[in-house]
Design goal:
globular, 751 residues, 20 helices
Length: 751
């Protein structure tokens, strides 16, 4: 490139401005180096993390969400710039020719990458580097992790197979040694990093011989790094970097075809210079300031080889287009860009803004983006990151990148205008589901991108209306039955007194049956519930909800397993198979002064709040209370694990603090049983949880290989209990205040 140049070679522009020092756990030494990617992300080697933790260097075991001390040599020395970074992605070291562990003494291996995340973005002059593919013959430079200016080691890529590059150094100056691993290999001629330092080839022990290999090290190529990170959903989005395959014959042909539209749009050198200067600033390139303009041929090269260059130029051009001819020229450029690997769909600014918005959504409601993508693209095989029930914030960049590659939808568009890209359709569905200011911000972003792409307003409006209808979807309110269970001390074991209500369409409750005058077996109660649900208006249209109100000591009852089948029926009819059988326990919540308000707040936040897992990591009830009052203040869903005694205590505290949705395995006895509920997808879309639990129960009742028995508390704040359920504890016996009070509609009563 002539008019466009790589950034200046000052410390903030070359690799030393992105160099990271990884400290040992005792902060007493440098474990290795790393490189700043972008945002809050850092890249280093997995074996550097192992070295910092004091474990075997090439151990493949994922250490989990450990926190390491790091610093930026470009910011400060002597510890003033120390920060903490959490491990968020792990690519274990693996043998070069198979997927197994790396043996001690191996000369080379694969994988061996780790991505760390800071609490906040680092200050200037730290900045991301440009990345470019490694090739044989490049002269590259590496630095010791401490970043001392004199520690640079100059080497040449002697051999490169696309995966590994072997590096040979001169006998003068510094050599690549311990503490260099994980640092960038910087090509001054290209103004780009081309890989990471990984290891060195050392001569055998003993007397030195002239036949020994001297000052040879090796690094992982950028091609290989990019592929490995993409495989684990942690691919970075460098501001400037040529993708694999750039410059191939196909891209040369595309470049030549771009020259004509560029001449039509930017034939005036002054206009071309203005847009090219803005393009260079967005991409991190230096541009000339002598009043000249780049040739359209050089500009075409940049558009074909520099990531996001074409959409970034289109973003600059779109507001100044004059007439249909200019629009057609820009559409032609964008269409040609889809034939290259570098262009992408979004400009640098559009991409950065969407990552911020989606990161926020993923933290508020991890299930929102997969839910929106599934609805927006029902006939598309979604990217792997969006097929799970939850999308973690660290997986957002990978999901965006994959969606950018999907073509437009198949719906008709007017006047042969471009089709709406799949990514924008998902954005519209996510916006509709979000509501409020977040919805308006997403729609405003989507509208700007659509206008830049030349999408007809009616096409965007139609998809927006589809998204609104989906967001307003109603599963159809099925039959809702409320059951209250209680026992008197003299009642036989396994017998309960009950009353049953059916909810009317207007939200009021109608008493349909009472069994408080005598105790009944579970089978009798199940048959009674089936009769009420089956005889209600609208029965059969949807799966009915049966909410059973129990006393605190009855939350363990296997109500879902009660079989209401008649003697002449073909097969069992357990309540949990045919109904959304959930539990309610208002007595516990009423013992909290703020219980009603807590329930309303948490229920309203059920789509946005993060589920809380109460397992062995929560030491006691006080730890649970602390979490529910701080980091999970709005948590509406808690999954409780552990042995029965501890599980019951945690369950009671959840209900007392107004948690409306609590799921646990009634049959679990060991801490190791936590995975048995995975089949119910406990972290999936919250409103679909009762149906997923029903499916799980159907399978569990008939398959002895499924030992779990899920129990679900579902305190729907929008389905208030009848006034009659403001009960005293029936276990106090018939001399206590009324266990079931006089109903307001004059139906039969029981005391």
């Amino acid at each position: 490139m002539g008019w466009f140049k790589a950034p200046d070679t000052d410390p903030s522009a070359d690799a030393r401005g992105a160099l990271v020092r990884v400290l040992s756990a005792d902060r007493g030494r440098t474990a290795g180096a790393g490189v700043y990617l972008a945002g809050r992300r850092l890249l280093t080697c997995a074996h550097v993390v192992n070295a910092a933790l004091g474990v075997r260097m090439l151990s493949p075991r994922d250490p989990g969400s450990v926190t390491l001390d790091v610093s930026f040599p470009a910011v400060a020395a002597g510890g003033a710039g120390d920060r903490q970074a959490r491990l968020v992605a792990w690519v274990p070291p693996r043998a070069a020719h198979h997927q197994g562990p790396v043996a001690d003494g191996s000369l080379e291996w694969g994988g061996d990458l780790a991505v760390l995340e800071l609490d906040e973005e680092p200050p200037p002059p730290v900045g991301p580097v440009r990345w470019q593919d490694m090739r044989a013959g490049q002269l590259v430079r590496a630095w010791y992790g401490g970043g001392q200016p004199f520690s640079y080691a100059d080497v040449q890529v002697g051999s490169c197979d696309g995966r590994i590059g072997y590096l040979d150094g001169r006998l003068s100056g510094a050599a690549v040694d311990d503490g260099y691993s994980g640092g960038p290999l910087w090509s001054p001629a290209d103004g780009a990093a081309v890989g990471l330092v990984m290891g060195r080839i050392t001569p055998p022990e003993g007397t030195f011989d002239t036949q020994h290999t001297v000052r040879r090290s090796w690094g992982l190529t950028w091609q290989s790094v990019r592929q490995e990170l993409a495989r684990v959903g942690a691919a970075p989005d460098p501001v400037l970097g040529a993708r694999e395959g750039a410059g191939a014959a196909g891209d040369d042909a595309v470049r030549d075809m771009m020259v004509g539209p560029l001449h039509a749009l930017l034939g005036d050198p002054a206009v071309r210079a203005a847009h090219s200067t803005a393009l260079g600033a967005a991409l991190g390139l230096r541009t000339r300031t002598d009043g000249t303009a780049p040739s359209v041929e050089e500009l075409a090269v940049v558009l074909c080889t520099v990531e996001r260059a074409l959409p970034t130029l289109a973003e600059s051009l779109a507001p100044s287009l004059e007439g249909a001819r200019d629009r057609a020229g820009l559409d032609r450029l964008l269409a040609l860009g889809r034939l290259t690997d570098a262009a992408g769909l979004l400009s640098v600014a559009e991409h950065r803004a969407l990552l911020v918005k989606w990161d926020h959504l993923a933290r508020r409601d991890p299930g929102l983006l997969p839910r929106a993508a599934t609805a927006a693209l029902p006939y598309v095989e979604l990217p792997r990151s969006l097929t799970a029930a939850r999308l973690a914030p660290e997986d957002v960049p990978g999901a965006v990148r994959e969606l950018e590659e999907w073509p437009g939808d198949g719906s008709p568009v007017p006047h042969e205008t471009p089709r709406l890209p799949a990514l924008l359709r998902v954005v519209e569905y996510a916006a509709a589901e979000t509501g409020g200011m977040a919805c308006e911000a997403l729609r405003e972003w989507s509208g700007r991108v659509a206008a830049r792409l030349g999408i007809h307003p009616s096409a965007l409006g139609e998809r927006r209306a589809d998204a609104a209808r989906w967001s307003d979807r109603s599963a159809g309110t099925g039959v809702r039955v409320l059951v209250e269970l209680g026992r008197h001390p003299q009642d036989p074991d396994g017998h309960y007194r009950c009353a049953v209500w059916r909810m009317r369409a207007d939200g009021t409750a109608a008493r349909t049956a009472t069994g408080a005058e005598r105790p009944r077996t579970g089978r009798e109660i199940a048959r009674l519930v089936r009769e009420v649900a089956g005889g209600a208006e609208g029965a059969g249209q949807n799966v009915a909800l049966v909410a059973v109100s129990v006393a605190p000591d009855a939350l363990h009852l296997p109500v879902d397993e009660w079989d209401g089948a008649g003697a002449d029926e073909f097969f069992p009819a357990r309540l949990g198979e045919d109904f959304h059988l959930v539990l309610r326990c208002p007595q516990i919540r009423r013992r909290s002064r703020t219980g009603a308000g807590d329930l309303k707040r948490r229920w309203g936040a059920r789509h946005q709040s993060e589920p809380l897992v109460a397992d062995h990591r929560i030491s006691d009830e006080m730890e649970l209370i602390r979490l529910l009052k701080t980091t999970h203040y709005d948590a509406a869903r808690v999954i409780v694990h552990g042995p029965p005694a501890g599980r019951t205590r945690l369950l009671h505290f959840c209900l007392a603090m107004g948690v409306p949705i609590v799921l646990w395995d009634r049959a679990a006895v060991e801490p190791a049983d936590t995975s048995r509920l995975d089949g119910a997808t406990p972290y999936g879309p919250v409103d679909e949880l009762p149906e997923r639990v029903r499916h799980f129960r159907v399978r569990a009742y008939t398959d002895p290989e499924v030992p779990a028995r899920p129990a679900l508390v579902w305190e729907d704040a929008e389905l208030p209990l009848p006034d009659e359920l403001q009960l005293a504890d029936p276990s106090q016996g018939p001399d206590a205040p009324e266990a079931i009070a006089r109903p307001s509609d004059g139906t039969e009563q029981a005391t």
